[in-house]
Amino acid sequence: MSRKIVLSGMQPTGRLHLGNYEGALRNWVSLQDEFDMYCCIVDWHALTSDFDDTAAMKDRIFDMAVDYLASGLDGNKCAVFIQSQVKEHAELHLLFSMIIPIPWLERVPSYKEKSESLGLDSYGFLGYPLLQAADILLYRADLVPVGKDQLPHIELTREVARRFNSLYGEVLPEPQAKLTKFAEVPGTDGRKMSKSYDNVLSLADTPEETAKKISTMFTDPEKLRMGDPGHPEKCPVYALHRIYTHEGTDKIADDCRTGKLGCVADKKHLAQSINEALAPVRQKRAELVSHPDVVWDVLRDGAKRASARAGETMELVRSAMRLKYDS
Question: Could you confirm whether 114 is annotated as catalytic?
Fold first, then answer.
């Protein structure tokens, strides 16, 4: 039996951080031995908000690809590629745009939220979830690893497949969401780690940069000085300990509660744990940065493999829609 197909992707925001690493990358790495993986860098999606700032796109794509590979994605096991290098994404999106009612797109929760918060009102932004559906259905993906917040997008994709199949025959399988429990990674200010908050610990940071950022981290607001009893369940430093410190977290919590452990020493311990965990990633990252041709070769090879699958799908789509005029 052939292996099931998984499609995942991220917008090229440049260097990735621990939130990306724990929230997606480590999961993708664990899936690549079991499934046929297509891991996409979705540069066209990025244009919905960054259409006026494209000069750095190539560098951001490169940095993201480096972090993909340094984190353990293997170009021999999965296709790592750039969305715009597989033109069938655009073709399928265009065909879908002819058959999908506008209200389907307007009801996607993220559309109203982001259109109001970011002031985006372009046709491309409205069609963002439809392009996402095309990304998934182009590979006839069986599974899409997502968190609960992305479930509306997967349901829309399933509705698009049903709509297409009802018009033209059974061509596109309905993908299933592969719900994954993502680690909640707090940033240095205690909020969710995000570049928009400028609170990230990047995979590319040096050990010294990591230690410096962690030294400024928010902690338990009720623990003001050494000796004060703390509440580790409220502390973002302890939340990161639970991910990266593999031994002694119970003692850390106990010492915090009794006031034995001060925040300065606690942060130094956390910095050591994170730096030890990221050492192999950073070593691999340095190797890749010093050999950029290797990275671009992986992306070119991934695009060829993705194009082969995408081409098969579009042959089925064009045939079903009676759009093959040369035969």
Answer: yes
> Domain ranges in the chain?
5-184+292-320, 205-286
The tokens for 108 are 């996607």
Task: Give the phi and the psi of residue 144 in degrees, each rounded to 5.
Answer: -130, 110
Amino acid at 173: P
Name the CATH superfamily for 5-184+292-320. Answer: HUPs (3.40.50.620)
Which listed residue (195, 234, 260, 268) is catalytic?
195
Taking only the tens place, the pLDDT of each residue in 46-68 is 999 889 889 999 999 999 999 99
pLDDT value of residue 174: 97
Active site residue 213: no
DSSP 210-265: HHHHHHT----TT--STTS---GGG-HHHHHHHHH--S-HHHHHHHHHHT-S-HHH
Name the active-site residue from 4, 77, 192, 284.
192
* Domain spanning 205-286: CATH 1.10.240.10: yes
Q: How confident is the model at residue 327 (pLDDT cuts 50, 70, 90)?
A: low
234 is catalytic: no
Name residue 9's beta-bridge partners. 40
Tens digit of pLDDT for each residue in 92-143?
Answer: 999 999 999 999 999 988 777 777 767 788 899 999 999 999 999 999 999 9
Contacts of 135 (CB under 8 A, 6+ apart): 7, 9, 40, 42, 83, 89
pTM here? 0.92
Do the two domains 5-184+292-320 and 205-286 of this chain adopt the same fold? Answer: no
- The catalytic position among 114, 234, 268, 284 is 114
